[in-house]
Write a structure and sequence with these properties.
The complex is a heterodimer of chains A (781) and B (162). Chain A is of the alpha+beta class and 781 residues long. Chain A has 20 helices and 28 strands. The chains are: A alpha+beta (781), B alpha+beta (162).
Chain lengths: 781, 162
């Protein structure tokens, strides 16, 4: 293994450009003749559109054109779709209401786009957008998902009576009911999972370029999956034929799920570029981001957990209502179902589980995957319940968990998943040691002396990553396969370009993917370039989400490398008149094992392309591609422990220590993995302590700026104590599991368990603001 | 419209823009220096921090016209002769960036912070000083580490020079 190979803390190849201001984000792109777009958006949460008059706006300085939904419809541009079919338990398909890229008859949330203004400058477009007269007839709105299900509420889509999108179940309800009836103890809890705004620091942006000469479209966009964007825009939205559409996602400033989806703006800017004959760029401002980026979470659940006399869990019953917002976003249906209920077994051996999930339309922005996507909701529910049960049963939280841990693998849960490997007790022990769990009582006593309430809480999470085996997800309703593709091109002088369908928007693929190649071939990392994010350069791809880039994307690279190595060995064997089975690749040299014969890598590469002396019948060149379809999900797991101090005078919570002990399987670059965990924990602490999207009853978004939506700042957080253990994943060639979401999944329940421990009141909802904590602490006294 | 002249990264530059143009847009659109970013519309995120006459400012909260005649340093002007500034180098060494979008503002804020506090910086001060810069990727852990390391190194270098 070279110094830059697998397992090394290699500083990132991509950092130099980001640190010197040379990053290339979508809003940085500029092409000749480019104009600027501003969208006219609904100020109402629910209204019909009686008419749109853009006469005055069109006459304003710098305005090229104003286009609305009627023209979009006339040009045959299709509805936005949800790509994962879910059937209700009565067998009926989910009720997908029409989502027009520009609303032409009805608007259903504040921010719903109704027209696009294209002008010489952003300022002129903004001025003109204010002059577009939209005649709205306001309708009553509903934003609360529980309320939206009731009779007599405003109805969003004619297909969905009582706003119910689907009523779905998983598991054996009868078995669960029998176990509940026979239980020695039942813990019951009501769980709210607060609505969040993902907030990548780069706001969404797109640049649509129509080339009339070639009838070709180019779309620069802030996407986590440019190939998927191309597929959806061509196959479903009828924007352009697939072979005439190039999608480029250049440097992307964070995604966290919110940049998976294809939004109206990409579609409309491409279409508007053809209509106006000029390239059209749109960049979201932060207010628009709050209004229109897909939100995350927003679940209301009840849970019952049954125990036998030995404190072993015998059943889990969950009933969840999930808010999907005004329309079904691209993956919205799978988040509260197959990414949620399938993880309800957690790290525990639970014989019977039943989950019922109802999803609901409301007059709010669509809700879809946000970092963790379903798995944070499952973990929060389960780990709050475990902590509550431990308190009710008079057991230590660790003891109750140890009693119920799954200890042999593979383990088939009652909710589809088959866990392949893990050692949950190892993570628990590591976290408790790092947190000095045994010293907590003394620290609590010391804090009491200062008038502070100190608490400690843990969370043992599991997640399913490496999305996903194509046939398996296909059988569950997915509209696409979740393989990944890669090409490895060896240049004539032996340098290497890897084209991957994974997309890096902060994860450091340009470094970690290069580490894999460096490790395999023993080449310097600087001779390896990773290419991603451009449908003209990368053959195919499914993009980056669900911690899939290592387990799936890098496995595709490994598979292509297998082919490259096999051909390289053939060529080298021929050059050295040796048997190819005797060739080994070490330190950038192809050697005949057990002899002093060798050919440098670059010389073999040159031979592949000069083709003067190749084995008979072997094609010239050295470039191989592969598609990799995973055999199973991967199952990262770990234990997080949080310690807090609550000021009883103010209710202010200070996170005094946060410990994470994760099992991600094999690790390519520990420095990058730690960074992923840090960021995930910060988002989890944000959810638990600070963040919460709030709409008022009329559907106005109250939290549409950084003055109103509390993002975690540096002084809200401590430094984190992180460590990893390793049970390698047996189902992919690298033994990796994925680390992108764990922090956000495992941390919220640890924090709320700690606060409720500190104040002695289990009734507390996220975000645990000072006001709420103070009130809960008062109620406990 | 106004013609505005200022010194940016040591070179005198001019541009014509609307009176209402913010400094950040002048830098990005008129000068084509796209390293300075816009991450919010309420002067909260700090992605747009530059130095104006030696002080860090949020370039979204000042008009281009107000900066006329001043000397502005952007992220593009920090590295000298292809050599990363010690703060840039520390961010790389300590993995203080992920997606890179907040990074220019973080680095410019950090340089200013270290200039004011020197090697006396401690973690609590760094965290308090970062109140006006939001990062969604790193959880700040490695940003704090990078700034402390850079402060230490720069303080050490200064002492050695004295």
């Amino acid at each position: 293994m070279g110094v830059d190979g697998i397992g090394a803390r290699v500083a990132r190849k991509e950092d130099r450009r980001f640190l010197t201001g040379k990053g290339r984000y979508t809003d940085d792109m500029s092409v000749p003749g480019m104009k600027y777009a501003v969208f006219v958006r609904s100020p109402h949460a629910h209204a019909t559109i009686a008419g749109i008059d853009a006469t005055a706006a069109r006459a304003m300085p710098g305005v090229i054109d104003v286009l609305d939904g009627r023209q979009l419809l006339a040009d045959g541009i299709g509805n936005l779709i949800c790509g994962w079919m879910i059937h209700s338990k009565d067998g009926s398909p989910m009720k997908m209401g029409a989502w027009r890229p520009l609303a032409d008859k009805t608007v259903r949330y504040v921010g719903d786009a109704v027209a696009i203004v294209v002008a010489d400058s952003v300022a002129e477009a903004r001025d003109a957008a204010e002059a577009v007269v939209v005649d709205y007839d306001p309708l009553p709105a509903v934003t609360d998902p529980v309320q939206a299900l009731a009779d007599g509420q405003p109805q969003l889509h004619p297909e969905a009576s009582n706003n119910l999108v689907f009523d779905w179940e998983l598991g054996d309800g009868a078995a669960v009911d029998r176990a509940l009836a026979a239980a020695a103890h039942v813990t019951e809890l009501k769980i709210f999972n607060n609505r969040l705004s993902p907030n990548p620091m780069e706001p969404r942006a797109t640049l649509g370029i129509y080339d009339a000469g070639d009838e070709h479209y180019t779309c620069y966009t802030t996407s986590q999956n440019p190939h998927l964007a191309r597929l959806v825009m061509s196959a479903f939205y009828n924007v352009a034929p697939e072979n005439k559409l190039r999608v480029i996602a250049p440097d992307v400033g964070g995604g966290f799920g919110s940049k998976i989806y294809i939004y109206p703006e990409e579609i409309v800017c491409l279409w508007a570029s053809k209509r106006t004959g000029v390239p059209v760029k749109w960049t979201s401002d932060r207010t628009e981001a709050f209004l229109t980026d897909a939100h995350g979470r927003d679940h209301v659940s009840t849970v019952k957990m049954a125990f036998d006399a030995g404190n072993r869990i015998t059943a889990l019953k969950v009933d969840t209502i999930a808010n999907l917002g005004a329309y079904m976003s691209l993956f919205s249906s799978c988040v509260p179902t197959y990414l949620y209920a399938t993880l309800l077994s957690g790290q525990y051996d639970i014989p019977a589980i039943h989950a019922n999930v109802r999803t609901v339309y409301t007059n709010t922005v669509p809700v879809d995957a946000y970092r963790g996507a379903g798995r944070p909701e499952a973990t929060y529910l389960l780990e709050r319940t475990m902590e509550t049960a431990a308190r009710e049963l008079g057991l230590s939280p660790a003891e109750l968990r140890r009693t119920n841990f799954i200890r042999s693998f593979p383990h088939q849960t009652p909710v589809i998943m088959n866990y392949d490997a893990g050692d949950y007790e190892a993570s628990l022990n590591a976290a408790m040691a790092a947190a000095d769990w045994n010293g907590f009582a003394a620290r609590k006593a010391e804090a009491e002396g200062r008038g502070m309430k100190r608490g400690i809480g843990m969370s043992c999470y599991i997640e399913a990553c490496g999305l996903a085996p194509s046939a398996a997800v296909g059988s569950l309703g997915a509209g696409v396969g979740l393989w990944e593709s890669a090409e490895v091109k060896v240049n004539m002088v032996g340098t290497i370009e890897v084209m991957t369908g994974s997309h890096s928007h902060g994860q450091g693929h340009e470094t970690t993917f290069a580490q894999l190649v460096a490790d395999r071939l023993g080449l310097p990392i600087d001779s390896i370039n990773i290419v991603h994010g451009d449908t003209d350069k990368v053959q195919m791809g499914m993009g980056t989400y669900g911690s899939r880039s290592g387990a799936v994307g890098m496995s595709a690279v490994a598979k292509a490398l297998d082919k490259v190595e096999a051909k390289a060995k053939k060529i080298a064997a021929h050059l050295m008149e040796a048997d190819e089975s005797d060739i080994v690749i070490e330190d950038g040299v192809l050697k005949v094992a057990g002899t002093d014969k060798s050919v440098p890598w670059f010389q073999m590469a040159l031979a592949a392309y000069t083709a003067h002396n190749l084995p008979p019948g072997l094609e010239p060149g050295l470039k191989e591609s592969a598609f990799y379809d995973p055999a199973n999900f991967t199952f990262p797991a770990g234990c997080y422990i949080c310690e807090v101090e609550v000021d009883p005078e103010t209710g202010r919570t200070k996170v005094v220590q946060f410990v994470a002990a994760d099992d991600f399987g094999n690790i390519i670059n520990p420095m990058i993995v730690e960074g992923q965990v840090h960021g995930g924990i910060a988002q989890g602490i944000g959810q638990a302590l600070l963040e919460g999207v709030r709409y008022d009853d009329s559907g106005q978004l109250l939290t549409a700026s950084y003055l109103d939506y509390a993002m975690p700042r540096a002084d809200d957080l401590p430094s984190f104590v992180v460590s990893t253990s390793n049970t390698p994943c047996p189902n992919n060639p690298l033994g990796v599991k994925g680390c992108g979401e764990a922090g956000a999944i495992g941390s919220p329940p640890a924090l709320i368990n700690a606060i409720t421990d500190a104040i002695g009141n289990n009734q507390l909802t996220m975000p645990a603001t000072a006001e709420k904590v103070w009130a809960a602490a008062q109620a406990a006294n | 419209m106004a013609k505005i002249t200022m010194t940016v990264n040591g070179r005198q530059v001019s541009g014509v823009c609307e009176d209402r143009t913010l400094l950040v847009h002048f830098i990005r659109e008129n000068l084509g220096l796209t390293g300075t970013h816009v991450g919010c519309d309420t002067s909260q995120c700090g992605a747009c921090v530059v130095h104006m006459d030696g002080q860090s400012v949020k370039s979204c909260s000042i008009l281009a016209a107000q900066a006329a005649g001043s000397s502005v340093i952007t992220i593009e002007g920090l590295a000298q002769n292809g050599e990363l500034h010690p703060v840039q180098a520390a961010f790389k060494a300590h993995h203080g960036l992920q997606c890179g979008f907040c990074t220019p503002g973080m680095v410019m804020t950090a340089v200013d912070m270290i200039q004011r506090h020197g090697s006396a910086l401690d973690e609590a001060t760094v965290r308090a000083e970062l109140e006006g810069n939001i990062c969604r990727c790193t959880g700040y852990h490695n940003i704090v580490k990078a700034i402390l390391a850079a402060a230490h190194e720069m303080g050490g270098a200064r002492q050695a020079a004295e």
